[in-house]
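Follow-up to my earlier ticket, as requested here are the two runs.
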Amino acid sequence: MGGKKGLGSTDGIGICHSYTPDGRCVSLLKVLLTNYCVYDCSYCVNRRSSTVRRARFSVDEVIRITLDFYRRNYIEGLFLSSGIIQSSDYTMEHLVRVAKTLRVEHGFQGYIHLKTIPEASQELIDEAGRWADRLSINVELPTQKALDDLAPEKQLVTIRRSMNRIAERISESREEGAASKKRDAPDRSKPPVFARAGQSTQMIIGADASTDATILNTATSLYKQQRLRRVYYSAFSPIPSSSEILPPIAPPLLREHRLYQADWLVRFYGFEAHELTTPNSPNLDLAIDPKLSWALAHRESFPVDLNRAPKSDLLRIPGLGVRNVRRILSIRRLHRIRLDDLVTLKLNVKRALPFVITADHNPHVFALDALALRDRISPRDAQIDLFGVRRSAVSGEL
């Protein structure tokens, strides 16, 4: 794996790690059934016109590798995707066979994530959701114009229609499950759970000229209309022999990170996507996180009194995450919040101080202009916190 010298691999395949909603890190075998594809998407290294070497697993090979790795405790589940072979139904049938065989013949209880194909038949999608914990369809790009330019064989309306079908089946399955719990018959059979972990998608960042505002608006629409559990953002990476319409260099990875932060604000902090960008600045600020950027642009909304403000206002304070907002609401029922309480909660006091009022603190002395405040709170040469990303993913601190 590591070549002639050294250990490890940096080729981006094999065992990947994912965080569950409760904060656990799980290891998944991430594999393609084949890297051949009948589509010719410009940004994809596996496109039809690519000169990359092709390979294909059989269904039995994927099953054997998954079981071997699982028994050795290398993995806790399978993340299976594929290029399109022959047709959408032909490919989807093979993906379903892997999941079904693992569950039925081998009693596999690990996590299974299947990439589904928008054009596949409803019967195959239903079958996939019966055996997989999560289904996903990649929207790839945020607008139809972007798809027309880079992936003309894909239609956003078809992708979203397929997402709608999955969302409807998930809702039906949950309603059936709730109804079964109300029955008193001890021998009742439980209805199959359809994609218990919901559905997700992925958007490629930086392959086209779409702004962060456009990307966030599309993501918000997918959360609301198709009820997705996650939208993943993947920075574009230049590929060999690529089209001239693609950028020659990758976008900064920090842009991907800022989009994840903005996504978190929309999902858990009560922000609307349009609040995080402006017509004059449609891309997120790479120097500071989007929550601090919003606060600096709306100084009239601060300071916020921690002892009086509603939860919605507390969630907009830089340095206060979802978990600490809940703790502040609990503590202030017992006594008035003081600076010592913020230290005890281990929140980012330096970041929060100019934006909050406590029983022993009123930040009139911090009535600085936004630029000076920005430089003082978020110095450009600050040391990166090695474990900050994980804490943010688990606790919602931002």
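Run two:
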Amino acid sequence: MVAQRAGAQSGQGGPSFTGVDCEILGCQPKPAMNRISACVITKNEERNLPRLLQSLRGIADEVVVVDSGSTDRTEAIARDYGAGFHFRSWTNYSEQRNFAASLACHDWALTVDADEELSSALQSAILCWKKRAPQFDVYEVARRTWYLGAWIKHSGWYPDWNERLYRKEAMRYAGLVHERLQYQGPCGRLGGDLLHYTIHDFAEHQANVERYSTLAAKRMYEEGKRHWRGALWFAVPWSLVHNYVVRGGFLDGYRGMLIARMAARAVRLKYAKLGQLLAAERKPGEQAK
């Protein structure tokens, strides 16, 4: 189901993707109007990667994995599933994703993370899309997150619309934090959910907040933002209220409260860290803004 919204190297063995069996047997692959290269960036994803690759079977015509230095079985798992495996030293999310797309053989790229999985409804939607002439150059999907033992249905986490399927020559990713595709024109929508197994325990959530708040502060600093004290005092309580009340976090029970509290903490940390960056460059006697 599609709706409108404005706006390499290959291993063998194990399960395989659309077209791989035909290549091994020496026959012609089944005709498909739209062929997809799934692009994944990884580092130490042996726990998550099999689930993702299994969900891509029969959907992706090729899988490109770009790894930034795994020390576990990530490479062996990728090759066992017939994915192309490539190494690139980590720079940022946008550049890693753009590099993966540059290695793709097909016109359409499907961006997925190792801790995600295509739901059966999303698989069906993509298979239907592959048989028809595309109406858009980019399509978004709803992402549903598994958090501390349950699916989150509110809290601003669902539906978390993400542009994931796109004609690769028409657009690129940009941004250091929460990278997004840069494109013009309308965006289509695919039915079904992209399942996201992002956080396994609260300590992992805390670590993510620390990491992303550091990146966010660096981005604001590089963009020339210099006013941070007012945002520190007013944006933090607003974030808590917005996520817990306006976005319906209270409907997710105690998990919704945790999400709202951690979102507010992320806001506080990014502005506090921006203040630290500004203090480091400030001349003696200069007043903070």
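The only thing I checked on run two: The longest strand covers residues 187-199. Let me know what else you need.
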